[in-house]
Amino acid sequence: MNFAAQFFANFVNDGLETRRSFNDSEEYDPFWQRWETSVYSTSQTFLNSKSFYVFFKEVSSAHQACIYLIQSRYSRLSKQYGMEIFLKKELLHYTGSVKERGALFLLSSLKQVRPAYPLIHTTYCAQFYFHIKHVGHHDGEDDSAVYLAGLGTVGLEIYEQVPKLDAVIVPASGNYGLLTGTAAAIKHLNPRISVIGVEPEDFPLLLQSLKTDSPIKDLYCNPNKKLYRDLMDHSLGTHCFQLAKKTVDKVISVREADALVAMLRFQEYERSTVDTEGAMGLAAILAGQLPELKGKRVAVVVSSANMELDLVLQCVERALVLDDRVSRFTVQLDDWPGDMAKLLDLLAREDCKYKLQVTSTSACECSMSSCHGELVFNHS
């Protein structure tokens, strides 16, 4: 039996009541209401429906078939933010990304691979200097039930590994299947656990789609392409959107600055280098957008760690400035022996370590006996 096909066939025709359209007032918007007051009361039949059970059965089979188990570990950041934080480090996969879960289960579910041995044929043609042209088309695999079931194993593992869980924070940028698959598994096991999605403020695709009650295909935004280069290539699928409406309690957006500082926290406290997507969950916590989770047990999914080394360096340097750890200032001194030494001695007494010093006499317009200095320093 194809459980994936049965799930979506039943899901579309389960006779659910349609949600109200978006109103300018957040008071009347079902998305902004709590799960206990709106979503749970109207979706109880869905959470117990046959289609939802079939999807969870697919998640269970994916977990037993080919998924590499990753533990959810207690984080040292817990005391700093006043909650018990458990990190699900999906960056430990061989590919450095949680997408490996969905891809492995999708490949293992294929009945026939067409054409036979395409890589071998392509390699032989290339050896004889034939021109190879890629003509394959994207078939929306990242919105298929099988792919979502593979990603849903994250929620299954979190539930098994973290007892008495109160909330799960999942990145929603680019890989929306991770959020919806995880939320579907969590809500099947315990509907009282809150599932929160986090996406960048510069590209709030899911947030805007939920407000308009329809998946937005083209969102006219201009995110930082260096940090969010995968966002522009992904769209919100219909299946992901429908699951998000039924299972995700809250979606918030975080600033780029908060994501960069979160990346710095991972390097300092967890000895892990993550990308901006992987840092989304922690960014929402350190930005203070989830005060209701104080004193709660929270699982944070760290989805990926795929970023070029030079970009990581740029992010760290920028995060140090945003975190008030590095400062830059310009000073004008008399061009006399020992004056620069006096300035550096003053900084040393304040426990500052200077990183860069640029001194120029020609840049100063006041006097030939003066010099212009620019310093960059670390301070505690």
From TrEMBL:
Domain Tryptophan synthase beta chain-like PALP: from-to ranges: 145-303
Pfam families membership: PALP (PF00291)
GO molecular function: L-serine ammonia-lyase activity; threonine deaminase activity
InterPro entries xrefs: Ser/Thr_Dehydratase, TrpB-like_PALP, TrpB-like_PALP_sf
Keywords recorded for this protein, A-Z: Lyase, Pyridoxal phosphate
Cofactor dependence: pyridoxal 5'-phosphate
GO annotation terms (biological process): isoleucine biosynthetic process; L-serine catabolic process; L-threonine catabolic process
Keyword Lyase assigned: yes
PANTHER family in alphabetical order: ACT DOMAIN-CONTAINING PROTEIN, THREONINE DEHYDRATASE, MITOCHONDRIAL-RELATED
Name the UniProt record assigns to this protein: L-serine deaminase
Organism expressing this protein natively: Cyprinus carpio
